[in-house]
Specification:
Oligomer: single chain
Order of helices and strands: HHH
Radius of gyration: 16 Å
Number of strands: 0
Distance between the termini: 60 Å
Helix content: over 70%
Low-confidence stretches: none
């Protein structure tokens, strides 16, 4: 039997890979939090770990984006 949660997880991973702004990454973080909460209620440890992994990757992507924005802002303020 194929786990229907795999589709959600894979779709969220694809959305994270394609995220171009902080709002899109925050959407993925919301999906990850919902996955984790649902998994805890259903006692589905595998889905919970998928949610944790997705949240970790989304937080790393968010950190990367904010660092890039801060670097860009620093460069622009130096030129002014």
């Amino acid at each position: 039997m194929i786990d229907p949660n795999i589709d959600t997880y894979e779709a969220a991973c694809r959305a994270l890979a394609l995220a171009n702004n902080i709002a899109e990454v925050n959407d993925v973080l919301s999906i990850a939090a919902a996955m984790e909460a649902h998994a805890r209620q259903a006692n589905d440890r595998s889905l919970e770990l998928d949610g944790v992994e997705l949240r970790f990757h989304a937080e790393c992507r968010l950190d990367q984006m904010t660092t890039n924005q801060n670097d860009e802002a620093s460069r622009l303020s130096i030129r002014s």
